[in-house]
Amino acid sequence: MNAFQPTLSPIVFIDLSLLTMLLLVAIAMLRSRHLFAVVMLSGIYSLLSAAFFVSLDAVDVAFTEAAVGAGFSTVLMLAGMLLTARREKPKRPGRAPVALAVVVAAGAAMIYATIDMPAFGDPNSPANSYVGQAYVDRTASEIPMPNIVTAVLASYRGYDTMGETMVIFTAGVAVMLLLGAGSVRGGREVSDTDNGKDE
Amino acid sequence: MDHLILKVTTKLLFAPIILFAFYVQFHGDYGPGGGFQAGVIFAVAFILHAFCFGLDETKKALPQKALTIAMVIGFLFYAGTGVATMLLGANFLGYDAIAPNSTHHAGQHYGIILVEWGVGVTVASTLLTVFYHFTGREPDIDQEDW
Q1: CA separation (Å) from B68 to A33, A179, A188?
Q2: Taking the CA of residue A100 as centre, how many other CA atoms within 13 Å lie in the half-sphere pointing to its CB?
Q3: CA dihedral A143, A147, A150, A151 (to 10 degrees)
């Protein structure tokens, strides 16, 4: 296996600063008890991940993350928040040595596993060889469109995408069945006003 | 609480957002984008409308009944493309059967546009359905509650 030496480009520093900000936002989310702030921070988290994906040249994923994660999820979390209290109940968690040990062990195992990962940007890594390379090679001659991501998503893996569409459809039907009683014509009126107040 | 500036801005932005959704939908073959992203952007335009003018006004413009039908039509459009290619003698979703005499696989392009359209319709209507059902359960928010 030929060794790949990653070069230290300015982009790496952008990546590192984005990842640092992601970590800070995650810690802020953990520490905040104000649900509105948590929802807004989760939107910021999604936007930062979208920026990170752009820096990794995954613009399609970044686009989806910005639209779904930062846009729609935040709206949905706000709508969900309105059905519950504005603040998380203050709770002092007791010490849980077993849980701490499990988390430390799992985290250590993950860090140990990263040693075996291919270097950042390695063109010979398993993700970039084999089937990924085949798609890149064949799209130009088999599918007349420049965006390989769309070609893979809608043609080579069209069956997968149909399943994803089915999943979204099923999610919509499930929400209609669970929450639809007061919202659909002919349904019963539902009142949630008692839950909307602070304690 | 009559937010005039917000309402005017929303009215100005609504059409460009819808236009951008269609751009993302049909330009997905050439740049980043596609049915999923376009569907979300389309839904977000109506969510913005609901935030500004109230859910009832948005439901008048785009009733839940239409969304329910659109959800089904979108998915059937996708699956129907697959069935159509089978009827034309190819595999399920084998788009080359749409234009069998093409020298540069034009059928793939047609098929992908059809399928992405199905994805876009399903995603937009499903997201709006979810939004309607979540926000439809609570009376208007008190200003003090924020």
Answers
A1: 37, 14, 19
A2: 5
A3: 20
Taking CB atoms and an 8 Å limit, are B44 and A162 in contact across chains? no
- Per residue in B73-84, pLDDT tens? 999 999 999 999
Listed as own residue / partner, the contacts of B5-11 with beta carbons closer than 8 Å and 24 or more positions apart are: B6/B52, B7/B52, B7/B53, B10/B48, B10/B49, B10/B51, B10/B52, B10/B53
Classify residue B72 by burial, with Cβ atoms within 10 Å: 0-12, 13-18, 19+. Answer: middle
What is the pTM for the complete model shown?
0.81
Distance CA A180, CA B53 (A): 22
Residues A57-107 pLDDT 10s = 888 899 989 988 888 899 888 888 877 777 777 776 677 889 999 999 999
Q: What is the secondary structure of B11-70 as a DSSP string?
A: HHHHHHHHHHHHHHHHTTTTSS--HHHHHHHHHHHHHHHHHHH-HHHHHHHS-HHHHHHH
Q: Does B132 touch chain A (CB under 8 A)?
A: yes
In degrees and rounded to multiples of 5, residue B52 shows phi and psi of: -85, -40
A45-65 CB burial, b ≥16 within 10 A, e <16: bbbbbbbbbbeeebbbbbbbb
On chain A, the residues whose CB falls within 8 A of the CB of B123 are: 165, 168
For tokens 């039509």, the residue is: B73
Residue of A40, A72, A195 best to disrupt the B interface, most CBs of B under 10 A: A72
- Ramachandran assignment for B33, one of left (phi > 0), alpha (psi -120 to 50 degrees), beta (any other): left
Which of A86, A162, A172 shows the shortest C-beta gap to B130? A172
Q: Give the mutation candidate from A155, A178, A184, A188 for the B interface (greatest B CB count, under 10 A).
A: A155
Taking Cα atoms as reference points, which of A84, A71, A83 lies closest to residue A40?
A71
Q: Which two tokens stand for residue A18?
A: 């984005």
ipTM of the complex: 0.86
Q: For A72, which of B43, B68, B132 is closest by C-beta distance?
A: B43
